[in-house]
Design a protein that fits this description.
The complex is a heterodimer of chains A (286) and B (310). Chain A is built from 11 helices and 2 strands. Chain A is an all-alpha fold and 286 residues long. The termini of chain A are far apart. Chain B is mainly alpha-helical and 310 residues long. In chain B, strands 1-4 form a two-stranded antiparallel ribbon. The interface between A and B is large, with 37 and 35 residues.
Chain lengths: 286, 310
């Protein structure tokens, strides 16, 4: 039983950090461009498939394949921003619908390119650490470390550097930030591209853990948005905490309750948090 | 004047009996019922409800279950289905509007309720048969003077039933919109705070808009399930909701004719050109994006704009 609970908790934490990295992208994009990019899950899928292709077909080692995979997600993000999101800045409903349209396009494209057959490359790093009767697969620990590391680095970059101050200034008052010399167009494009790169990075690690299918993006963006709302839109650490909370709840919940309801926990969290504490666990009162 | 546009539709089966075209018309009418009712809450009241597909799909399940389990006639089974839709809309609407959820947050919470409903339907295997769905063998009946009670079967009978359903839906929306209720909806859409300052009870009118829209979607769903002869959980899915949103956006969100045009185009297009499933999904996405970025007022809105400019 202990092995089961610990194992499930670990799984929950890993999946939760994946939710968290999507949530981070959602939060950043929303704060700077005023839209919710529902297509982030698709960029995650692009990153995942690119990694799989580079490792399985081209034969690159996994750590090397990470770089072009993330770059391809970022490039797709840049294309999407210049062609679509540029025209929906600060228009939440239009941005939402445009990104939803993008989901159908990317997902249909992936289906046509790679078919619905799940792809698997879980052989990247095998083996497990044993800690007092509980076995922890190395790849999961590595993925968790990398994802959490990226989230903390983003947090540190925003808290400590000029770019971060510019971003906060822009989020508070775009006109004033513009007058102070913040290049607002560049910042908005940059944040969309960065969030797509984050999603691509999450996808690349996902590829080493689970099998890939074209519909994976839709599930992860829903969880990512739920995590962002739970943690509080605008809070970077909140997105990690929100993601892990949902991930662990799902994992522990499916030990005791039918697995079919695992998608319901996040929904219930979202309803409750939006009704009673709309700013989320870590958000500031707006 | 506009009412005369219905005449060609009423006359179509008399002059032309091609099964394919009439079937496309039936699907368009049924989906247009859902799209027209959606524009009441999304277009005219400005609330992006993601609960529409849930109302649509749930009602088709409930109606069928009352027909098959309680052996009620279709028209009487509509009663409990409608009652349940109203109750559910009031609960979800009250929660959302009491807590003053707006725009994105309203969409997310209604989406959450919609997904919870879908998960319930998907997993209540004894009643709903899970992912496999339900086969509907019963048909609605009507009493025709002279020939007694008839089952509604075949393309032409369904053509008129679905057309009647669409006329009813448009009629209800038209009556609502031309009354003071419609003006309150418009006030909420244009400026919620101002409307409240001027004494519009925004909670009540938002709830009313949400409930009427869901009720009409439920009617469409009940018809749809009995026409296709098949009910499955995907009727409640996000994608079903998005199809309806795409129809409204393509046709035009601020008219009652827009969603009908959108429903016809999006239902008919895949049949006119042979398309694989993937290309179809991709086309939906492209249409959704283009109609937002290039034609924000939809087909009907753009035509009205050109006529005004000319």
């Amino acid at each position: 039983m202990l092995q089961l609970v610990v194992g499930q908790t670990l799984n929950g934490v890993i999946v939760g950090t994946l939710y968290g990295i999507i949530a981070l992208g959602v939060t950043l994009t929303f704060g700077i461009t005023g839209i919710v990019n529902f297509a982030l899950g698709e960029f995650m899928m692009i990153g995942a498939y690119a990694t799989w292709y580079l490792v399985d077909h081209v034969g690159l080692p996994f750590p090397v394949a990470l770089v072009p995979a993330v770059a391809s997600a970022a490039l797709c993000g840049l294309a999407a921003d210049q062609m679509l999101f540029r025209f929906t800045r600060n228009n939440l409903v239009n941005g939402l619908l445009v990104s939803i349209g993008l989901i159908s396009i990317v997902e249909a494209g992936a289906l046509a390119l790679w078919t619905a057959t799940p792809k698997d490359m879980s052989y990247v790093l095998t083996g497990a650490l044993r800690l007092g009767g509980v076995s922890l697969p190395k790849i999961k620990l590595l993925a968790f470390g990398l994802l959490a590391g990226v989230i903390f680095l983003t947090y540190a970059a925003l808290a400590r550097t000029w770019i971060g101050r510019a971003a906060y200034a822009f989020a508070q008052n775009p006109e004033a930030a513009m007058l102070m010399g913040v290049r607002t167009d560049l910042m908005q494009t940059g944040v969309v591209v960065y969030s797509c790169a984050l999603a691509g990075f999450g996808g690349a690690l996902y590829a080493s853990l689970y099998s890939l299918e074209p519909a994976m993006g839709g599930l992860y963006i829903l969880k990512g948005v739920e995590a962002a709302i739970l943690g509080g839109i605008g809070s970077l650490i909140g997105s990690l905490v929100g993601g892990v909370t949902i991930g662990v709840t799902e994992a522990i919940g499916s030990i005791y309750l039918p697995n079919a309801f695992r998608d319901a926990y996040g929904l219930v969290f979202v309803i409750v948090i939006l009704l009673f504490k709309p700013s989320g666990l870590f958000g500031n009162e707006l | 004047m506009k009412a005369l546009l219905w005449l060609p539709l009423l006359a179509l089966p008399i002059v032309y009996r091609g099964d394919v075209v009439l079937t496309i018309c039936i699907f368009s009418f049924l989906l247009a019922m859902a799209a027209v009712s959606f524009t009441l809450v999304f277009g005219f009241t400005g609330q992006l409800s993601m609960f529409h597909a849930a109302a649509f799909g749930l009602a088709s399940y409930v109606t069928y279950l009352f027909v098959s389990r309680a052996h009620l006639p279709f028209w009487i089974a509509l009663g409990p289905a409608m009652a349940m839709t109203v109750l559910l809309s009031l609960v979800v609407g009250t929660i959302c509007f009491k807590f003053k959820l707006k725009a994105f947050y309203f969409a997310v919470v209604t989406l959450a309720f919609s997904e919870l409903t879908r998960l319930l339907v998907l997993n209540w295997n004894d009643l709903t048969n899970g992912t496999l769905g339900l086969l509907v063998l019963e048909k609605p009946t009507v009493w025709v003077p002279g020939s007694g009670v008839l089952r509604i079967e075949g393309t032409i009978a369904w053509y008129y039933l679905s057309l009647a359903g669409l006329i009813l839906t448009v009629g209800v929306c038209w009556l609502v919109l031309r009354s003071w209720i419609g003006r309150c909806f418009a006030a909420i859409r244009l400026d919620e705070d101002l409307a409240q300052t001027l004494g519009v009870d925004i909670f009540r009118y938002k709830l009313l808009s949400f409930t009427i829209a869901n009720l009409l979607a439920a009617l469409a769903g009940s018809f749809y399930g009995f026409y296709t002869g098949y009910i499955e959980p995907s009727y409640l899915s996000i994608n079903q909701g998005l199809d309806i949103i795409a129809m409204v956006l393509l046709g035009g969100r601020l008219s009652l004719s827009g969603p009908i045009v959108g429903a016809f185009v999006l239902t008919g297009l895949p049949h006119l050109i042979e398309l694989s499933g993937e290309v179809r999904a991709m086309l939906y996405g492209v249409i959704l994006i283009l109609s937002i970025l290039v034609m924000p007022n939809g087909i009907v809105g753009s035509i009205a704009g050109w006529r005004r400019a000319a």
